[in-house]
Every structure is written in C-alpha cells, then in structure tokens.
Amino acid sequence: MFCSCCGNTIDENQSFCSRCGASFGKGPVQSQLIGFSPRINDAAFTAYKKKSRSWSFIFSFILAVIAIVAFPIYGNATGEIDWPFSLYYGLGIGGMFIIIAILQTIKRGVDKTWDGVVADKYTYISYERNRNGYRIPHTVYVLKVKKDTGGSKKHKWRDSPGLYDYYNIGDRVRHHKGFYYYEKYDKSQDTQIMCAACMAFIDIGEETCTKCKCPLLK
Ligand SMILES: [Zn+2]
Ligand SMILES: [Zn+2]
Asked: Looking at the domain covering 114-172, what would its CATH class be?
C-alpha cells in the first residue's frame, strides 16, 4: 500500500504515514471520542504549521537585529567592549538566533508520526540554589512515552504541571509529525481536549479550536 499524499510505502496494518503524517482508512470522518482522528489531514494544520514557521523566523530576525544594534550601543556607553568588537559580538549572538530558527525548522521537517503508550509519570523535588545561595525546592513533572517501534521520549516540566495532568499511565497516544502534542486514542473520559496546533485546552463538545480555528482531533 502507498500513501495517497506522499507516495511512501505503508504496511497494510498501519493507519498512518510515518513520513508525511497523513492518516487514512479506519474511522468515520465525523467526530468520535475513541480512535485516532483522520482530521490531522485537514488543510488548516498545514496552514498553521506554515504560519508558525514564518513567525519563528520573523521573531528570530527581530532578536538578531536587536543584538546587532544593542551590543555596540552597550559597548559604547559602558566602555566595556571596544568598537568594532562590540559589533562582532552582536553579529555572533544575532547569527545564533537565526541558526536556532533554521535548526528548529529542519528538526520539524525530519520529524515522523508514531504511535506509543504513556509508560510512566511521576514527580520529584529538585533543590536548586538561587542567587542568594538558598536551596529552593522545585517540583519536576516527568512524563515518559514509549514508542511502539522502540525507544521512548521523556518530557519534563518545572514548577507547573504542563501537559502532565492530561495523560494517564497506559494511555495509547499518537505523536503527529511536526507537533508537540500527543493525541489520545481514548478521549471518552475527558471533559477537555487539547488543540494539536496551539495546545489550548478546549471543551470536548467543540469541533474546532476556539483560539486558532484548527479542527480538534476527535
Ligand atoms: Zn505520506
Ligand atoms: Zn488551537
């Protein structure tokens, strides 16, 4: 069997394309709370990805310009960095912002869709010294997802639970190419659903995200 979107070869028992992320076959198009949603193929997601990519470039470009301008001004005002070295520092830091944006885009491009299961979740307290030397406790939330194809992903949030509370151990999940989000196979126990694109929590009764207008994966 071949993917209808990109032509990639797919196993008969696979319900998604690991290369382009398209899902097909099983499951009706109308919303359902059990099963992976075929709505990830919606053009709204492609548009959203494109827009967020442009924004990340615009944002890093602005940061780069600020760095290139600010270093010489700072150097001149304080006398700590001489011209033209202050400009070189600015160009170096500014260039780094651009390189980070390029690397992020490449990383998203080579990302693949995969299925897995929430293998473990736990919290622990980590003590870190603050500026005054006091040991301050921080709660760290850890979520471990095991891939069906082997290997696992560990996610950590510090001080705020992030997506920790949304998932339970044993949940079947799907990672969608290019998104920092796991779709739950079974959403029937949930009152809220997370938007795959902007990651806002939306009432499970909605069909599209009230924040970014992308379809909700159900
Ligand atoms: Zn494909
Ligand atoms: Zn959204």
From this structure: alpha beta
